[in-house]
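ok so i was messing around last nite and threw this chain in just to see what happens. nothing serious, just curious
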Amino acid sequence: MAQPSSFKFGFNRRSTAEQVTEGVDLSGKTILITGVGSGLGYESMRVLAKRGAHIVGIDRTMDAAKKACGEVSGTATPFACDMSDPEAIVACVKVIREQFSSLDVVINNAGIMAPPLTLVHKYKEPLEIQFAVNFLGNFVLINHLMPLLKAADSARIVLIASGAYVAAPKKEGILFDNLDWHTGYDGLTAYGHSKLAVMLMNKVLAERLEGTTVSSNAIHPGLIRTQLALDTKTLKVKLISKFGGLFMRSIPQGAATQCLVATHARLEGVNGEHFADCNSKEAIGHATDMALAKKLWEKATFLAENYLVAS
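result:
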């Protein structure tokens, strides 16, 4: 496998999704994207459909998915899925598998950021909603989509992490005994916790995919002007949203890294890497800990056991 320093593309943090996919022909490709109703998911769908891909567009409600899919040029098929509900995830994939025989790319774009403390009670333990949506929902989704990915000649998983993974609890990284945040809840720290979990999932997933035709990579889109943290009560996030304009990127710029990793020819077969600013970026801290990653994978398998299939 090439070293991360090899993955430089001549793009940067101001490049747009259209720029990084210019000249790419995705005709005949099927790409699943979650969270297409707005923001980075919508922009990724718009650009990749423009390049010829058939988009499987998922949003929380069918109305939102239909509206978004109907607005893009190209082919996009809408599906509804609440990523906080594993039963909805399983049901959604069942319908998708009735209509599609393979997937070339999955972009796990849907996510939430720093809401008031909210618990999800669908798994074996109550979970803080960011951990349930940003990490465990994607864990279940990928588990059920894997047969469709393996049916493609070559397939890619693009996991949307965040540079905020460094905001996860400094000592433990993952709070195995406090996944419901019954003590010490802070919206931004919990967001970082959920995104560290995504980074760690990528490590184990990539290892498990070695020798297959499927690869997995994680990306950091950057600080974007979206509605991601619209209902936050966290002061730090409010201040960033209000005063971070000079450092924020537009939605077309924010969607660039995930579109590049999903489509660039040089990344065929590249597995287990992390990308930001349209180039590779070395992970740091807890995100490099394979022992922690495997412990988290085991915990996720336990938590979601009732919703997983053998893969």
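not much to say yet. Residues 146 and 311 are 7 Å apart (CA to CA).
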